[in-house]
Design brief:
The complex is a heterodimer of chains A (about 260) and B (about 240). Chain A has a domain of about 150 residues: P-loop containing nucleotide triphosphate hydrolases (Rossmann fold, 3-Layer(aba) Sandwich), CATH 3.40.50. Chain A is built from 9 helices and 11 strands. By secondary structure, chain A is of the alpha/beta class. The model of chain A has no long low-confidence stretch (mean pLDDT about 95). Chain A has a 6-stranded mixed sheet with strand order 7-8-9-3-10-11, sandwiched between helices. Chain A has a 5-stranded antiparallel sheet with strand order 2-1-4-5-6. The two termini of chain A are about 30 Å apart. With about 240 residues, chain B is mainly α. Chain B contains 9 helices and no strands. The longest helix of chain B is centred in the first third of the chain and has 37 residues. Chain B has a single domain, classed as MetI-like fold (Orthogonal Bundle). Classes of the chains: A alpha/beta (about 260), B mainly alpha (about 240). At the A-B interface, strand 7 and helix 3 of A face helix 6 and helix 7 of B.
């Protein structure tokens, strides 16, 4: 079963075509890595999937629930606000620069949306949040404020915040790009631990080795198109396209 | 007239100054937020007028934002003309413009209306600067987590905005303490009006000195209160 289907997504900013017909499918439990040079449209694709941007054309559905459809005449039709509100619960997003709420403590960052958006029981929300924080090695940071944490800790909190909402699929938008090199490891470790729990994930990343190791499927994007897709072995091991080869030589010189 | 009498009389005036001060803040701080919303409004009812390739006039009309334009004009008038003049317009306007007889009680009401309208314009621009300085990522995180628009504004954005704008608010609050004296323009008997009256009838500067000390103490207290408020928001960055 597919958790997410993005079909023929097109998106322009003014005269700049950022996405030129992208199709990506994500099956339940699958880890999908999206790689490609800066400006290839990876982040825009994620932003379209998470409703932070609207598409100019194409279809998006989560578990068969349509976010947007395009009629044969090319008319783009988004679902009603009520439907979109429901569909938002299917996904979570981890941002490049965390976007924690600075005026909330760590635990409040996690429980506030549970209580005020998902209307869950307060006690239960706190218990869930504390369990998740402990699992991520953040139990002693529950009452800290974001500014008191390192970048790596902040990113782990933002992963907890997204996970606590129990999404069907979790998106990561370059989750380690804003971190000092010595802090990327702890965040990647957390993401890797989620693959063991068969969390469905879509990860936009520049960490090629990481993508190669954790992904079930890799999409290589360039210039608004999916140039190549396949298993990590296929895309990293024996890339078919010249553009993929050139990119991998630049970004992952150690790849076989 | 003894110093004691002067102090007692001015203390009564001070209470009226404090009333102007407090009511102005109670009215203009919330009103300023609404004015800021109007100032940032992107509502353009004629947007549909300009399909691709239409002329300049149509494009101009399509981009017309009536609410924003109106609020901009209001802010520009409030900031561009003296508060004293605005007080006079509010006080005498109803009679001279519409022949509505004005009663004795209207004097204080006019002072409050004038001050609230004026300060709301300044506060609106302060709110706007704070709201527009918020990183877009805060809105995006709230959106992805499913917060509604009012929740996003009141729970996520506004507390951070208040922290950012508090130093500017402090400035306005301190100015307001001194500005209450402008009510003398329509002879409302607050402290400064009284000080002038006593001074000219008794030929002495003492009332002004006493009033000056009262204003200064008032401001010392307000500066302390605002400092405490800033400190109380120091738990986050």
């Amino acid at each position: 079963m597919n958790v997410l289907e993005l079909t023929n997504i097109r998106k322009s900013f003014g005269s700049l075509e950022v996405l030129r017909g992208i199709t990506v499918t994500v099956a339940k439990g699958e880890v999908v890595a999206i790689i490609g040079p800066s400006g290839s449209g990876k982040s825009t694709l994620l932003r379209c999937a998470t409703l932070l941007e609207t598409v100019d054309e194409g279809e998006i559905n989560y578990l068969g629930d349509y976010v947007v459809r395009t009629s044969p005449e090319g008319r783009v039709q988004y679902s009603s606000p009520a439907d979109l509100k429901r569909i938002r619960r299917y996904f979570g997003l981890v941002f490049q620069n965390f976007n924690l709420f600075p005026h909330y403590s760590v635990i409040k960052n996690v429980i506030d949306p549970l209580i005020h958006v998902q209307k869950r029981d307060k006690e239960e929300a706190y218990a869930d949040a504390r369990a998740l924080l402990s699992k991520m090695g953040l139990a002693d940071k529950a009452d800290s404020y974001p500014y008191q944490l390192s970048g790596g800790q902040q990113q782990r909190v933002s992963i907890v915040r997204a996970l606590a909402m129990k999404p069907e699929v979790l998106f990561f938008d370059e989750p380690t790009s804003a971190l000092d090199p010595e802090l990327t490891g702890e965040v990647l470790k957390v993401i890797r631990s989620l693959t063991e729990e068969h969390m469905t994930m879509v990860i936009v990343t520049h960490e090629m080795q990481f993508a190669q190791h954790v992904a079930d499927k890799v999409y290589f994007m360039d210039d608004g198109l999916v140039v190549e897709q396949g298993t990590p072995d296929e895309v990293f091991g024996k890339p078919q396209e010249e553009r993929t080869r050139r990119f991998l030589e630049r970004y992952a010189p150690t790849a076989p | 007239m003894s110093l004691e009498t002067i102090i007692i009389q001015l203390a009564v005036g001070l209470l009226k100054s404090i009333a102007i001060f407090a009511l102005t803040l109670i009215g203009s701080l919330p009103l300023g937020l609404f004015v800021a919303f109007g100032r940032m409004s992107k509502w353009a009812p004629l947007k549909g007028l300009a399909p691709a390739g239409s002329g300049r006039l149509r494009k101009g009309l399509a981009g017309f934002r009536p609410l924003q334009t109106l609020v901009k004009l209001y802010i520009s008038l409030m900031r561009g003309t003296p508060l004293m003049l605005q007080l006079m317009v509010v006080y005498f306007g109803p009679y001279y413009l519409f022949k509505i007889p004005i009663g004795q009680n209207y004097r204080f009401t006019a002072v409050i209306i004038g001050f609230v309208l004026n300060y709301a314009a300044y506060f609106a621009e302060i709110y706007r600067s704070g709201i527009e300085s918020m990183p877009v990522g805060q809105y995006e995180a709230a959106s992805v987590l499913g917060y509604s628009r009012p929740q996003t504004f009141f729970k996520i954005i506004l507390p951070q905005v208040i922290k950012r704008i508090l130093p500017s608010i402090t400035n306005e609050v301190i100015t307001l303490v001194k500005d209450t004296s402008l009510a003398f323009a329509i002879s409302y008997s607050e402290m400064f009006t009284l000080a002038r009256k006593i001074s000219s009838s008794q030929s002495t500067l003492v009332p002004f000195v006493v009033a000056g000390i009262f204003y200064y103490l008032f401001n010392l207290i307000m500066a302390y209160v605002m400092e405490r408020a800033e400190k109380s928001l120091g738990y986050f960055r």
